[in-house]
Write a structure and sequence with these properties.
The complex is a heterodimer of chains A (about 280) and B (about 90). Chain A is α+β, with helices and mostly antiparallel strands. Chain A has helices at about 5-10, 30, 45-65, 65-80, 95-100, 110-120, 155-170, 195-205, 260-265; strands at about 90, 105-110, 130-135, 150-155, 170-175, 185-190, 215-220, 240, 245-250, 270-275. In chain A, the strands form 3 sheets. Chain A has a 6-stranded antiparallel beta sheet with strand order 1-5-6-3-2-4. Chain A has a two-stranded antiparallel ribbon with strand order 7-10. Chain B contains 3 helices and 4 strands. Chain B has helices at about 20-25, 25-30, 70-75; strands at about 10, 35-40, 55-60, 80-85. Chain B has a two-stranded antiparallel ribbon. Chain B has a two-stranded antiparallel ribbon with strand order 2-3. Chain B is elongated and about 50 Å long. The two termini of chain B are about 20 Å apart. Chain B is an alpha+beta fold and about 90 residues long. Classes of the chains: A alpha+beta (about 280), B alpha+beta (about 90). The interface of A and B includes residues 62, 117, 142 and 144 of A.
Chain lengths: ~280, ~90
Amino acid sequence: MTFWVDEAYGDPNYGNGKWFLNPKNHSRQMYKIRKPGYKPAAYGSDPESQSGRTINEILETRYTDPEKFKTLIAEANAMKGDSPFQIGQVITLEEAHQVCELTYPVTAMSCICRIHTRAQEERNEHEYSCTGLGVGMLKWERWPERYKGGVKFLTVQQAKDWLTKWDKKGMVHILMTFGGSYVGGICNCDYPDCGAIRNRIDYGVETGCLKSHYVAKVNYDLCNGCGICVQRCQFGAIKFEVTRDKTNIDMLRCYGCGLCHTACPRQAIELVERESIPALREVW
Amino acid sequence: MTTAPVYPVIEIDHTKCTTPFDCKKCLQICPQAVFGVHAVKVDRGVETNPKEPGVYQLAVRYRDKCTVCNDCVNVCPTNALKITYP
């Protein structure tokens, strides 16, 4: 993988070296790692807010200085190791279920992106749409504004059902880190209210929404052109090919979230390992 | 030949728009999801109250996506928004 996540933090003993299936990245020790000179966090000084502010500053230059904007985005995307940004990666439902078994606790909570973009208030478990992971969640009451509307702690089975529910509704699962490689959440995202997806698709900020380890491919023998998958894609990768009366997936645009794969009534869409496709091996 | 891109200018009158998180009309009607809302006053250990004037502020985050359809201007109950297209 071109980014730091697999090279430095994957472990071949777990989940084929996928960094988010390495138990270390879910551990309490990772959460506690502080940089030298770090002061206890007040609201707005956490990695998430800092990364948000940096991205906002970069996005602002697209009006004032379009050339500088391109340079800053390229610099940000080229950063490894100590990227100041939150790292996010699209994962499939199956991988999200595996993560739920690794980490503790798993909680349902309100989505910060939807609060920001649509002022959507989520006040109970029927309204929550985001998933918080790890020991950091035990301290949520210290930042009630960040966790607006409260949180609900879930058992492993409840967490899996919860993620499946959002998969059925058509939300992409994006794994989020909060400082270093510490895995802190699985978002349920769509366009345009998810900041990570929007910043990547519209402005090219790659780190918040890396592509998954898979890429979707249509089996034309099985596809009957029902079109169910077309409305599931949040990335604009799926088109209905009228000529062939079948669905068409642009593998270059595909992020490998698997939403089309789980929705297809004929199992006509398979998820292929990204690393097995030569031209996509380095496309994250 | 390339020309510099032209984007609409969206002005928000924060003296008129005081409770955007509670009102949220422009945030929800915008087809391009141009706006953002954030808390400007956060007290530790307390959830900010959306009904309290001045604690949340409306912001323009994706101005380049605005098409000047003026839905937000028309829906605003306080006439706090003004869009100009140069």
